[in-house]
Amino acid sequence: MWGVTRRDVTGVGFIESAATQFEAGKSRWRTLLLAYQTLGVVFGSLVTSPLYVYPSMPLTNPTEDDYLGVYSIMFWTLTLIGVVKYTCVALNADDQGEGGTFALYSLLCRNMNIGILKSKRVDSNSNILRNTQPAEKETRLAKFFERSIVARRALLFIAMLGVCMLIGDGTITPAISVLSAIDGLRTPFRSVVSKSLVEALSAIVLIVLFLLQKLGTSKVSFLFSPIMGAWTLSTPLIGTYSIIKHYPGIFKALSPVYIVRYFTRNGKNGWLSLGGTVLCITGSEALFANLGHFNRASIQIAFLFTIYPSLILTYAGQTAYLIKHPSDHSDGFYKFIPSSVYWPIFVISTLAAIVASQSLISATFSVIKQSVVLDYFPRVKVVHTSSSNEGEVYSPEINYILMVLCVAVILIFGDGKDVGNAYGVVVSLVMVITTVLLTLVMITIWRTPAVLIALYITVFFMMEGVYVSAVLTKIQEGGWIPFVISIILAFIMFGWFYGRQRKIEYELTSKIDLERLGVLLSDPCVKRVPGLCFFYMNIHNGLKPILGHYIKNMRSLHEVTIFTTLQYLLVPKVASHERIIVKKLGLKGVYSCVIQYGYADSLNQEGEEIVGQVMSCLQAHLRSVSSFELSCDPLEVEQENSEIEEAKHQGVVHIRGKTQFYMGPNCGWFDKILLPFYEVLHSNCRSALPTLGIPSQEQIEVGMLYEA
């Protein structure tokens, strides 16, 4: 195991080799542990899909060949979309460990240089922003997106649509999963257990599940994984028993010939039945979106070695039972379970349905976090529940909104069939969007050979296009539910994005550079008042116009002013020597400061601690500059440090800007609609600056109107 050679036994080589192998062993065990935890989340909606494959079949008298055709469709759908597209292709298209539609969009934007948040770190030596992506020759498609604003907006619209539909899916998955499982109570007790009781029990179960989310995905999944272990073991065993008892030759249906015969024989009804069979693969999008919560290897292990074979055997067993009992297709799952093990399987399936709900809840947290970081969604509270995994997050506001929506879906649309129709519509559309974005990744980033790209497009666009055409017929039968949710979310995202873009455009055209700041400070009417001021703003793109607004109206600026930026990095923790980067800006008493922090760093310190750390770094920086530059007079440096220290003793103030749009006479009707909506969102969302423990008496908020 350790692979120690004879050379390693003598000297440091042995220690280094053993340490390396030990860390590799720890990494392997960690991957297996994550794979175990992944079972509790990644299974997602796949776990309850056997309950909904056959109920939606429009065939009145299905035959043996019909069931063989349906099973063949499910097998190849799971294999091609689940294994090939998502497990083997999509999971490799992560954006710094994140998965999902917006992660693909972020990856494309950064590599095509069309304006998206980059993973940046300020270098303490050069203070230059560095992009982590290597420079490569751009493809024609990338150049087309750079030149065409219409293409860029279309790409953004596609990504937003995918995100909104996935979130809308997050309101449907918990409802359909729990409702379908608890509905199993009605099979043996139909006269006693009413539909209303099933809905009430489902609502209670969901409320408890959402209250557990604050524990974090890893803890919840570790708790749920034994349930999934029991499910992935019990259902294929029952499936195998059913195959042996009812139809041992079921696996001849793996031949695609049965698919051709099925559609030839049933025509339009066969096409409509795809609205039910699509549910066998609906959890794959959640699998991809949960990439931020687990690493790629753990998801692949969990899916390929447990989930996939379990589903194949379960579907095969269910199909074998229905071939011998064709009239039971309206409730095929619970009826194919032997009566001797009915109740244990009912308990396991109910618990597994709860786990299935977890997958889309976690995926929703991930895409919301991505949208907030990329500034495409109003800022909500995002709590990192793991110190080692940046993607494992929890949002209290989103959690409780989802809880209310899920309970409302159950109580208003309690019929599992209507909820199932809504579920298939939105997920199939998200799969098509993912295919489009993955195709762009293959062309512009991976530089995949044209033959493989053509094969990918042909297979998956054809499959998913046919599925979409079938499920769109379900819109009037409950499929409109997620569309309404998605449209509302899309309007919120677009309103926020448009407002942020207009604000950035104004700040870029009205920004203040150092030369302009020097002119303002040279005005005799502007006084340098005693004290130390931390002026918070993004200094990378120039000083915001609110600084000029402040100086012109207050006619003053503190003797020592530090323009401070809080920089979020996609790393767990920032090293102490890189946390605070300071620089002298060339004007007397004016400095810049960047405070860098990762997702596991805590900034909830006392305000005095932050001030003391910045002051220490600034004074050390000035001394280091004087030691390297011969033109610097050490006495002047010490005098400057004394002035900084004196300013601190005279009083510290922290200034933050608060801007708002003013609808001028030339403002168009579009701005009059969207910008007020943005202001409503902005006034009700969380602050962009994390808490620093600054006393309220030291905080000043400066307002300014931006003319639209």
Automatic annotation (TrEMBL):
Alphabetical UniProt keywords: Ion transport, Membrane, Potassium, Potassium transport, Transmembrane, Transmembrane helix, Transport
Transmembrane segments: 33-53, 73-93, 154-176, 196-213, 220-244, 270-289, 301-321, 341-361, 398-416, 422-443, 450-473, 479-498
Cellular component terms per the entry's GO annotation: plasma membrane
Domain K+ potassium transporter integral membrane span(s) in chain numbering: 34-516
PANTHER family: OSMOTIC STRESS POTASSIUM TRANSPORTER, POTASSIUM TRANSPORTER 17-RELATED
Function: Potassium transporter.
Family: Belongs to the HAK/KUP transporter (TC 2.A.72.3) family.
Name under which the protein is recorded: Potassium transporter
Native organism: Punica granatum (Pomegranate)
Gene: LOC116198936
